[in-house]
């Protein structure tokens, strides 16, 4: 059984901790101790209020479901303490210097960093961009103004430009753009729309390349406890963990 340490005990953390299949959450850490304590009550995992104690606990994989700030603060230490790492707040890896550092420390320590497909489907296939020419990638994301912390009464373009600039302005809303850029090794253009007529998180992906053309659209139900986070993001972590040591590897 894979032993997990959970960094971040909010909406996704709770879904992960209450659907343990093929893994066991043994330790939980959050900057808000009451969040860690309440997940501990639900699951029996040990709650930690001190990161340095958490990181020396006996688990194999640390699952981050906290924030970009948490990834920046803790990811290197997690790897250096001999844990593999699942990063959901993948926007942290938009910073080239930080990402390269993290990857090089993972190589040195023979550890792996997993990026789940998060709020989209088909992330794995976009890795063809690493071996074949891609002409363009556009991500058009539409969310409710509430989840973008905006107050508009008509459909409004909140951002248009590069993924790495969008994630700086909307660190809780557009992680998928950075995941797509990392998978494809191609720049991603983003349109982020606030639409008062939608109550779901919609991601449309347009890709043109040597392979042909892709259009995909996913209409995600928001998570019960956080409208900015699609429920699918939590499910993607659960399926990653369930399959992490499977001899049958499906997908690119
Ligand atoms: N990759 C994707 O496609 C994708 C999709 C959805 C959400 N996300 C990201 O996943 C993360 C978790 O989402 P959520 O809905 O569970 O968020 P949430 O706000 O409900 O929960 C986050 C929890 O992490 C804790 N936390 C935040 N920063 C911390 C820090 N520096 N140190 C310790 N604890 C910290 C908070 O106190 C909170 O309990 C967010 O960063 C979100 O943007 C990624």
Automatic annotation (TrEMBL):
Stated name of the protein: L-aspartate dehydrogenase
Originating organism: Methanospirillum lacunae
Record pathway: Cofactor biosynthesis; NAD(+) biosynthesis; iminoaspartate from L-aspartate (dehydrogenase route): step 1/1
One Pfam family this sequence matches: Asp_DH_C
KW NADP (keyword) present: yes
Family that this chain belongs to: Belongs to the L-aspartate dehydrogenase family.
UniProt xrefs under PANTHER family: ASPARTATE DEHYDROGENASE DOMAIN-CONTAINING PROTEIN, L-ASPARTATE DEHYDROGENASE-RELATED
Top-rank lineage group of the source organism: Archaea
Any GO molecular function: NAD binding
Residues of the Aspartate dehydrogenase domain: 153-238
InterPro entries reported for this sequence: Asp/hSer_DH_NAD-bd, Asp_DH, Asp_DH_arc, Asp_DH_prok, L-Asp_DH, NAD(P)-bd_dom_sf
Binding site for NAD(+): 119, 175
Described function: Specifically catalyzes the NAD or NADP-dependent dehydrogenation of L-aspartate to iminoaspartate.
Misc: The iminoaspartate product is unstable in aqueous solution and can decompose to oxaloacetate and ammonia.
């Amino acid at each position: 059984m894979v032993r997990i340490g959970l960094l971040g005990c909010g909406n996704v953390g709770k879904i992960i901790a209450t659907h343990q299949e093929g893994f066991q959450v043994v330790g939980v850490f959050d900057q808000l101790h009451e969040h860690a304590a309440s997940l501990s009550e639900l699951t029996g995992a040990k709650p930690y209020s001190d990161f340095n104690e958490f990181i020396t606990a006996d688990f194999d994989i640390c699952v981050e479901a906290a924030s970009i700030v948490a990834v920046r603060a803790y990811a290197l230490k997690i790897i250096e303490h001999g844990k593999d790492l699942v990063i959901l707040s993948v926007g942290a890896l938009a910073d080239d210097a930080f990402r390269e550092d993290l990857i090089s420390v993972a190589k040195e320590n023979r550890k792996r960093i997993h990026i789940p497909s998060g709020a989209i489907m088909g992330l794995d296939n976009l890795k063809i961009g690493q071996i074949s020419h891609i002409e363009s990638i556009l991500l058009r994301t539409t969310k409710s103004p509430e989840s973008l912390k905006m107050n508009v009464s008509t459909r409004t373009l909140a951002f248009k430009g590069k993924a790495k600039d969008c994630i700086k302005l909307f660190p809780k809303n557009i992680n998928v753009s950075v995941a797509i850029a990392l998978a494809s090794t191609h720049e991603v253009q983003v349109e982020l729309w606030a639409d008062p007529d939608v109550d779901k998180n919609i991601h449309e992906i347009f890709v043109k390349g040597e392979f042909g053309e892709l259009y995909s659209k996913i209409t995600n139900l928001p998570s019960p406890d956080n409208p900015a986070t699609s429920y699918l993001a939590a499910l993607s972590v659960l399926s990653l963990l369930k399959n992490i040591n499977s001899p049958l590897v499906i997908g690119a």
